[in-house]
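Handout, section B. The chain below has 146 residues.
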Amino acid sequence: MEWTVLCVSKISPAQITRNMILERAGYRVVAIDDPAEAVRMFMASTVSAVVFGDSIEGEQRFELARTFKQFNRSVPIVALSKTSDSQLPPGLVDEQLESLGDPQLLLETLKRVRATEGSANNPPAHDGDGTSTKIAGSKTPKNSAV
């Protein structure tokens, strides 16, 4: 069983590339650009982790993180930000990264939160060709080369 990562971000080349990298690493990626749809998806399915892209406005990120943690505190949330000034308060997210363009940082962070969670509900990612789910305007290509 693979990890499902809910990626909440506006559609951009960076977001598409990030999703492809996650898929190549063995994660199942559900990409959503609408915060309201992200909440519905989070509550209606089994999500192993959440990644907020840096394109989601600060107040929306705060509200999403708060809503997700109220519904299920055990799902780790990783927030990407453009600068350290746009970080969320401690306790709302499990990890915060500045978007420096190095996808390895995100992969290492997800590996770290997987190890921290270590439960049967959150199995580790595996090597494989990963799949993508197209939801709410997502334009993440399936199995494309990076």
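Note. The chain has a mean pLDDT of 78. Compare this with the example in section A.
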